[in-house]
Amino acid sequence: MEQEKKTIMVTWDFSAVSYNALRHAFKMAHILKNNIVLFHIVNEPAEEEAARKKMEDVVAEVKKDFGEDVSFYVHHGKIFKEIAEYASKEEYNVNFVVMGTHGMKGSQKLFGSWALRVVAGSEVPFIVVQEAPQDKDRYTDIVFPIDFKSENKEKLQWAIFLGKYLNSKIHLYKAPVLDKNLQKKVNINLNFAIRFLIQNNIEYEIHTSSRAGSGKYHKELLAFSKKINADLILITTTKHITKVDYIFGAKEQYLISNKEKIPVMCVNPKSNFAKVGQFMYG
Predict the structure, then answer these.
(1) Which of 57, 125, 207, 273 is most buried when burial is the number of CB atoms within 10 A of its CB?
(2) Is residue 78 part of a domain?
(3) Which residues form the domain of 151?
(4) Domain count, the chain
């Protein structure tokens, strides 16, 4: 019996960044043999019928312009809840979500990242993009920040998945820490990652940041990612995100909406998408 295809979900608000997200989804769907669904949210049930007609026009336009078939789903509710809930339901078979963002502009600099609020709590990863994908056949270079947190092992599942199926090189970017106990944890995580990348025949390189402190580290991480022309940065989100993080900014929101406009894949801690063995030993 043929296994049901996975789906790449693209959040849709009719903006230019939605089309950029769709272009990324097309690029990955061709490699992964996934379906694509456009997901649009309206505020009230009464708005759904008009939105569906509008989405039918979008689907026809996509077919005409790109020669690609996509489906769509329209629902009412709050975007911060509905997107993650839909993506997490098993019956929709969502592999991951691709979402466009305009970056940190205007009031977002004061009141937190819109993108982070949508991403937080999802059981499947989000790939947050600002621009269209690079003009390359595949995603050749993925940056994987390594620190002392146990969540590194969770996002390693996705590094292996992307490395295997997109034929990407994984750049392990090691955080510098002064505390000896934390240094030990960083090295444990690094060695753990190397072991499984080797077992899965995935090309990798090791790089070490020269700057201690999270702010300086993230700046150097972005500078490195730009230097190697990275296609993607792979991160985990804050484990217990709070309203304070939304208002003043959890550190990852500056990576999600980074000024270099590099796409970022966000994996929430304790994601239920797949067992570790599926990616690590497959």
Answers:
(1) 125
(2) yes
(3) 136-282
(4) 2
